């Protein structure tokens, strides 16, 4: 059952209860194991190492056995046997120490010998579990792992290259489209420039023709006074007509060039 669906009090017990119970059980086991160390002949602070050699060893062996079972590592059998033996030893020490204290059992040479053999046996088994390899990988398994890794990397590389190629193709299409648009805009501008050039050429040709006609018909024309020009410009503005050189020349009856000149004089004034 997932802790996510437990009520709050159940989560508290599940999270904090287990380590509390473990510590409490270990603490309660300490006096009996110290007592057995004293019976075996140890004295002083050395007797406090017996709980580490029994209860703590049982906990370590149980954890190691569980980890090796979950990860399917070698050494599971020896770790399980060691955990079971340590648990049986811790249980026996508690029972025997209380039986001796209550007078239901007497000390014996066999008991002293058995308790004295506990530390060397614990050391031997811990070293054995430490020396067990964490994993056994054959050459064939290593080759399969390398092939799987190479295939994965090749797939990732192919996908990356494909994405890069698609990106470059899309960018090239975009550049081509922009180039085509710029080409069309340049062609339109060129056509407009040609039309504007033709219009300017036509206007210049017309202006030259208009300028030549009065010279053939009559001699030198009398210059128009500035006041008359200003009045003509004012009349054109009042009529809403466009004030330009050709229009002013037509109103004054002079050449287009003179019209531009008179218009310039009025604007300068």
Distinct helical segment count: 9
Q: Sum up the overall morphology in one term.
A: rod-shaped
* Biggest pleated-sheet summary: none
Q: What is the subunit arrangement here?
A: single chain
Beta percentage is: under 5%
N-C termini distance: 102 Å
Helical amount? over 70%
Q: In angstroms, what is the radius of gyration?
A: 56 Å
Identify low-pLDDT runs.
Answer: none
Order of helices and strands: HHHHHHHHH
Structural class: mainly alpha
Q: Work out the number of β strands.
A: 0
Q: Determine the mean pLDDT.
A: 75
Please describe what this structure looks like.
It is a single chain. The chain is an all-alpha fold and 269 residues long. The chain has nine helices and no strands. The radius of gyration is 56 Å and the shape is rod-shaped. The mean pLDDT is 75.
Task: Note the topology.
Blueprint: H1 8-40, H2 50-71, H3 76-101, H4 109-116, H5 118-131, H6 139-217, H7 226-239, H8 245-252, H9 256-268
